[in-house]
Amino acid sequence: MDAWQEHRHHLLLDGRRLSYLDFGPAAGKPLLVLHGHFSEGRSFAPLAAELAPEWRVVAPDQRGHGESDRAPDYSREGYVADAVALLDHLGLPSAAVLGHSMGGKNAYHLAARHPGRISALINVDDPVVIADTGPSGIAFCLDWPRRTPTREALLDGVGPAAPLIAGQLRQEADGSWRLPFVPEDVVASDLGVRGDHWPVWLGSDCPALLIHGRTSFLLTPELAAEMTERRPHTRRVELDAGHFIPAEDPEGMAGAVRDFLGSLG
Fold this sequence. Notes:
alpha/beta; Rossmann fold; 10 helices; 13 strands
């Protein structure tokens, strides 16, 4: 398998399609990578290229995103169940897991609920506490157009978020363009990450890395330091980036991930 090539596959879960990219090589050590809201598995292609051939990067489009079907709920239980089903489908008894933002929360929930399946944990800029009050912080996406005649019109409609999702827009058979998710689903998922997740973050003891963006709007330096200090076997790397580290500093993230994985032995 060419480590630079995307290989897309699909898994059916109760009739619902879960789509994923397997970057290979098959003999590489497995790393499951979980994207955040407004994203998809392909966002980790640069990381997969940097880690090949030692690591086999498996990147699902999480439920309701990319090529995966919508789901009946967007709870942590649902996301974790999808990840376990994917590991089972691939015949992987264990894997390292990396998650960014919402994917980071899914990653450490996975590690806490299934400790025997997760050998190492990488959390990319996801806090353990998000205020459980008020509307969703990403409710602005409800005003975005779902489908437009041209790609340019859709990018205009999403405004400042255009650079974040420009590479993920889908073109339909009739030539129109659509979002790679349903905004109502993303808002429901965002509301599901609210609250205090300290018990879950502290609920696993595998080696862990917290990658923090120095100018992140979501994870403060103080909370990042506390998360590192309170969880055993955890180290922290701070990058000169904001919250969207995979897009803002892919080389810095890849270097931090490579060094951490290399230290596992």
